[in-house]
Amino acid sequence: MTSNPKKNTILISIGELFSGPGGGGLGASMSSINLDNKEILIHHKWATDIDEDTCQTYKKNIQKYQTETLRINEPIQVICDDINNIDLTETGELKSVDGLLFGFPCNDFSIVGESKGINGHFGPLYKHGITVLNRPDKPKWFLAENVGGITSANEGEAFATILKDMDEAGYDLVAHKYKFEEYGIPQKRHRVIIVGILKELKKTFKVPRPTGHIQSVGEALSDIPPSVSHQELTRQSENVIERLKHTKPGENAWTAEMPENIRLKVTKAKLSNIYKRLDSTKPAYTVTGSGGGGTHMYHWEENRALTNRERARIQTFPDWYEFSGSKESIRKQIGMAIPPNGAKIIIESIISTLYDKNYNSTMSNIDVSKILNGSDQLKFEFSE
Fold first, then answer.
1. How confident is the model over 122-162, as pLDDT tens digits?
2. In what helix (H) or strand (E) does residue 333 lie, and over which residues does it extend?
3. CA 308 to chain centre
4. Mean pLDDT lowest among 60-69, 118-127, 144-153, 250-259
5. Three-state secondary structure call for residue 146
6. What is the DSSP track for 62-96?
7. Domain for residue 354, yes or no?
8. Which of 169-173, 197-201, 292-296, 322-326 has the lowest mean pLDDT?
């Protein structure tokens, strides 16, 4: 780990694969612990993503935060390309780093869809993270993130294979299904986070204990200044407005009582978040990055979809965060991101582990050792 020229500051360098718009990156940037009169901070060296708008968002915000807030003037290398085209080995252009973040694409692991797992188009992309973990100059630790459905894809075999590859790369692993609403995130977002620390370091990561603070979506959206960006409204058809008029907070298109002429004519799958109004007294349901009509998240009182700034608030992006691209591109970026405040809690726990600083912890709800030896098939599931 490298020392910052600034007195009493230690920097931990990180790189990111599949960086997205910077949810994990911002969470890392905001992470810090104080130990023996020294402040330990995160220093970004590089990031990769395939989407041009996403890369521009990352450059604009993470570089700004690192330069203006952390006073680290070194530019972050952001590579916008298909990850299959990037040389991730030690002979490539990406420098060695202390830590690696990779929220590998979740499309093939989501419980909404075919759940092709590692047999799908996106499923095998996790192996690029394994390439970095197998470098001679390998990171000392990593954080990998995916949807809750990863544990059941391919009848559990996909998750077991991923853990085995990480274990064989030389890391002690702790996997946990986080309910982010238990950590003060105003959203019921349930995600699997795998933390790995080099076995030779002999450090044991523990899952940070839930904060005990449950923030409602009403609280999260209560004080948005009128001057902030990304507050453009979505045009609603008269039918949508009429449906919302008959939908109470917490209800959706299937549970609300409405006239027959405006009911949806769907006989098969009935997703619970279709035209679902938020309940201002509870955390929001999961912010998603895609989906057609009826999936934009709907205000509990006003007959409209949420704005992108409101969606960003639910994901805990600060109001100064500026997203690049069209409204739909921004919607996708926000929905695919890791909540920065959630990432911060976990990354600070990793730093504390590396420096032997105590923190409040809880037991993991996934037994990695049993999965690796084939005795645990992960029968339980969380909703997305």
1. 457 889 999 999 999 999 999 999 877 777 666 668 888 89
2. helix 327-336
3. 17
4. 118-127
5. strand
6. HHHIIIIIS---SPPEEEES-GGGS--STTSSSPP
7. yes
8. 292-296
Neighbours of 81 (CB within 10 A): 12
What's the chain's Rg over C-alpha atoms? 21
In a domain, 275, yes or no: no
Mean residue pLDDT across the chain: 89
Q: How far is 43 from 338, CA to CA, in rounded Å?
A: 18
| For residue 29, pLDDT beyond 70 | yes
Looking only at the bridges linking them, the beta strands covering 141-147 and 32-35 are unpaired
What is the extent of the structural domain holding 179?
A: 2-215+338-372
Q: How many domains does the chain have?
A: 1
Residue 219 C-beta-side C-alpha neighbours within 13 Å: 12
Whole-Å CA distances, 293 to 4, 36, 231, 253, 330: 49, 54, 19, 12, 16
| Ramachandran angles phi, psi of 177, nearest 5° | -90, 105
Residue 287 is assigned to a structural domain of this protein: no
> Are 354 and 256 spatial neighbours (Cβ–Cβ below 8 Å)?
no
- Which of the residues 17, 97, 106, 144 is marked catalytic? 106
Alpha helices in 85-205, H assignment, sequence order: 126-133, 157-168
CA 175 from centroid of its chain's CA atoms: 15
Half-sphere exposure of 346 toward its Cβ, with a 13 Å CA cutoff? 34
Whether the CB-CB separation of 118 and 108 falls below 8 Å is answered with yes
C-alpha span between 366 and 162 (Å, rounded):
14
Q: How far is CA 372 from CA 68, 124, 135, 339, 364, in A?
A: 44, 19, 22, 29, 15
Could you list the beta-strand ranges (E) of the chain: 2-3, 9-17, 32-35, 38-49, 77-80, 99-102, 141-147, 171-179, 190-198, 207-208, 361-362
Can you give the pLDDT at residue 67? 93
Give a yes or no: residue 88 inside a domain. yes
- CATH number where 184 lies: 3.40.50.150
Total residues belonging to the chain: 384
Per DSSP, the three-state class of 170 is: coil
Determine the Cα–Cα distance for residues 120 and 306; give it in Å rounded to an integer: 32
For the question of residue 55 being annotated catalytic, the response is no
